[in-house]
Amino acid sequence: MKLIGSRLERQIEARLRASQVWILKHPEAQHFRSILGRTFGSVRSALELVWTPDQGEDLYLVLVNGSSIARFEIPRDISFDPELIPVELYHPLDYKRHLKGKDSNLTYLITMKIARETLEAAGNE
Predict the structure, then answer these.
(1) pLDDT tens series, the chain, 125 aa
(2) Torsion angle of C-alpha atoms 113, 119, 121, 122, degrees rounded to 10
(3) Which strands sit side by side in the sheet containing 46-53, from one edge to the other?
(4) In Å, what is the CA distance from 105 to each residue of 7, 108, 112, 120?
(5) Distance CA 86, CA 100 (A)
(6) Is 62 domain-assigned?
(7) Does residue 1 sit within a domain?
(8) Which long-range contacts (CB under 8 A, 24 or more apart) does 3-12 make?
């Protein structure tokens, strides 16, 4: 599958870029940064592949630094300790093997593209 710049691709890209800005810079995402920082140390790129709201917590899959996918659940209870949140790590290619459907594959490809661009830009600063 190749990226062709379709309207759907642009919509997915806009959502992913907004997720990265929120995770890396928004004050309300401090818990995200704490969890990712504890696991990865330096976080230069973080893109939300999947967000699944559930009754008591939200499940996230986040591509971090273009090289690992972090899976974790954040409780809706505002008094949780980010240090106690377990994080499962997956290699992006392992994650890709389990994708089904065009939208999921497009999201993966666009996420990898944005991560690569972000990391290249950070390397040139």
Answers:
(1) 788 889 999 999 999 999 999 999 999 899 889 999 999 999 999 999 999 998 889 999 999 999 999 999 998 877 778 888 999 999 999 999 999 999 999 999 999 999 999 999 877 66
(2) 160
(3) 46-53, 57-64, 68-75, 88-90
(4) 15, 5, 11, 23
(5) 26
(6) yes
(7) no
(8) 3/106, 3/109, 3/110, 3/113, 8/103, 8/106, 9/106, 9/110, 12/103, 12/106, 12/107, 12/110
Domain presence at residue 84: yes
Query: What is the C-alpha separation between 47 and 125, in angstroms, rounded?
Result: 20
Question: What is the pTM (predicted TM-score) of this model?
Answer: 0.91
Contact between residue 40 and residue 64 where contact means Cβ atoms under 8 Å apart:
yes
Domain that holds residue 86: 7-123
Q: How far is CA 59 from CA 40, 50, 91, 106, in A?
A: 19, 8, 18, 20
Number of domains in the chain: 1
In a domain, 73, yes or no: yes
Tokens, residue 4: 């062709």
CA distances from residue 98 to 58, 60, 111 in whole angstroms, order as listed: 21, 16, 16
Q: What angle do CA 61, 67, 73 make, to 5 degrees?
A: 20
